[in-house]
Design goal:
Elements (H helix, E strand, L loop, with lengths): L13 H31 L5 H28 L8 H18 L8 H32 L4 H21 L3 H4 L9 H20 L1 H5 L19 H16 L2 H19 L3 H10 L4 H4 L2 H28 L1 H22 L2 H8 L2 H23 L21 H30 L5 H29 L11 H26 L6 H15 L3
GO molecular function, one term: symporter activity
Family: Belongs to the sodium:galactoside symporter (TC 2.A.2) family.
Pfam family, one: MFS_2
Length: 521
């Protein structure tokens, strides 16, 4: 366990943690909702061709990957009385919220060509606003404290609040098609876009108003940010990216993140397909809300059980060991999905005394809840009385949740340590924005690749979403892929991080050298 007590001046007040966490809630709810709208409701609500929907999801990511490092450079070198990050977070949150709402105000009878161009253009503009918000927000988090362990606590808190978004997003698949809530799916999308856009503005500006970064008033070597210096700044930007890419500990963090996140995203949709097409023989009606419950309970366990445990592990054993342990636990969880998603085992469990008692309890609860839910327009949340709960699908969650729960909690904390190392080796200005932009670039590249490879795997195993009855061979192969892919990438991530050497002792040595060199920031 760490023997160094965090100084009072290095502790982030709960109000600032909450404001930063609110920003992370928006950082998750926006891409989550955008993905659902583009990959699902563009097809089902407006009838857009799946190929075009895929392009609308993938092509803007290329543009996004260019703007992130630029925004990181700009925020690193900005001089203002409000700090380097906060003005961009404030303006970016407002722009993002407005443009997200406008992106989905599409008429029911609009032509496919109009829909494609409308969503493409508005999405590109939205991504500019989102980059203005997201990149400085990540950079701000890296500089809110200089303490090794407080960084982990801050990221654990913000990641917990970010998980709330993933408790909400799965229910969009259920709420929007519900005829008791909306007359049409298009009406549902437009209304939910308004709600999400408003949340973006309200919660997104909180970090700009209440969070404090380092005092950059005396920070040396910052570049002038204006149109006259644009060409010179592009050279500096490229030089900064090359400099960051030579930071070996940071490259290990990026590599491990790419592997864990990409492996998880590759199979993220497989669980829904397995529940619907294997466990319930292709009947969405019989599957009901269980796919949504599966993802929501995963997020709840990650947020309120797994992340606090990981934070304590990091404090006791160090961040690298906590990452390796949590990643290995996730591999065990992925393997257990073979039994958890076995429909025969679930059926057998429901015939046991424990299974019958649990089913009776759930049915009793919802028998009393359903009339209330109906009266307030939340019938989509209900469970039909008499249903048998597929209990075993939830059993692996507490283990495989350690994968994603540990990833962003620990990696973002370790990236903050890397920013100190970069200042020690390369001097001012500190480059939290650039490090944050490149780190999240790895996340976005992984997400884009996952969208492509996920579809390829579905094709290879012979899965056809247009037919109800999938062959046993197809479903078994899909279940095997659902286990093998994330387990293999997680194992590779452990190998990448095995010799990561920026531990607590070295991080505190670096901090002491920096303070001696330029004083406290």
């Amino acid at each position: 366990m760490s023997q160094v007590k965090t100084a009072a001046k290095d502790k982030v007040p709960i109000g600032q943690k909450s404001a930063f966490g609110a920003g992370h809630f928006i950082l998750n709810i926006l891409p989550g909702t955008l993905g659902v709208f583009i990959q699902f409701f563009l097809l089902t609500a407006w009838g857009v061709d799946p190929l075009w929907a895929g392009l609308l999801g993938g092509l803007p990511r290329i543009f996004d990957s260019i703007t992130d490092p630029i925004m990181g450079f700009i925020s690193d070198n900005t001089k203002s009385k409000w700090g380097r990050r906060r003005p961009y977070i404030f303006v970016g949150a407002i722009i993002s919220g407005i443009l997200f709402f406008l992106m989905w105000q599409i008429d029911d009878d609009a032509s496919q060509s109009y829909i494609i161009w409308h969503v493409m253009v508005l999405q590109l503009l939205f991504l500019i606003g989102n980059t203005m918000f997201a990149t400085p927000l990540v950079g701000l988090g890296y500089e809110m404290t200089s303490d090794y362990n407080e960084r982990t606590r801050l990221m654990a808190f913000s990641n917990t609040m970010g998980q709330i978004a993933w408790m909400i997003v799965p229910w969009l698949y259920v709420i929007i098609p519900d005829t008791n809530t909306f007359n049409t799916q298009t009406e549902g999308v437009r209304t939910m876009a308004l709600i999400v856009g408003a949340m973006c503005i309200v919660f997104g500006i909180l970090p700009a108003l209440f969070c404090k970064g380092i005092d950059s008033s005396h920070m040396e070597n910052r570049k002038e940010i204006n149109f006259k210096s644009l060409a010179a700044n592009m050279k500096e930007l490229w030089a900064g990216i090359l400099q960051v890419s030579k930071n070996k500990p940071f490259m290990k963090l990026c590599g491990a993140t790419f592997l864990v996140f990409n492996g998880f995203q590759l199979v993220a949709a497989f669980g829904v397909f397995i529940i619907v097409f294997y466990m319930y023989s292709g009947s969405y009606e019989m599957a009901g809300t269980w796919p949504a419950w599966f993802n929501t309970i995963n997020a709840i366990i990650t947020a309120f059980i797994v992340i606090p445990i990981i934070s304590k592990m990091a404090n006791k054993w160090g961040k690298k060991k906590a990452f390796i342990i949590s990643t290995v636990l996730s591999i065990v969880g992925y393997i257990l999905k073979w039994w958890g998603f076995d429909k025969d085992l679930n059926s057998q469990f429901n015939q046991t005394g424990l299974g019958k008692s649990l089913n009776s309890g759930v049915n009793s609860i919802f028998e009393s809840l359903n009339p209330v839910l109906d009266s307030i327009g939340m019938s989509w949340f209900s469970i039909d009385p008499g249903t048998e709960v597929p209990w075993l699908i939830f059993a692996p969650i507490p283990l495989f949740a350690f994968g994603m729960g540990g990833l962003f909690t620990l990696m973002m904390s370790m990236t903050a340590d890397v920013c100190d190392l970069d200042e020690l080796e390369n001097g001012m200005p500190r480059k939290e924005g650039t490090f944050g932009a490149i780190y999240w670039l790895m996340v976005k590249i992984g997400q884009s690749i996952a969208l492509v490879l996920g579809g390829l795997i579905l094709s290879i195993v012979g899965f056809d979403p247009n037919i109800t009855e999938q062959s046993i061979e197809t479903m078994n192969n899909l279940r095997i892929a659902d286990i093998i892919v994330p387990s293999l990438t997680a194992a590779l991530a452990v190998w990448v991080m095995w010799k990561y050497n920026l531990n607590e002792e070295r991080a505190r040595e670096i901090k002491a050298e920096l303070v001696e060199r330029r004083g406290e920031l």
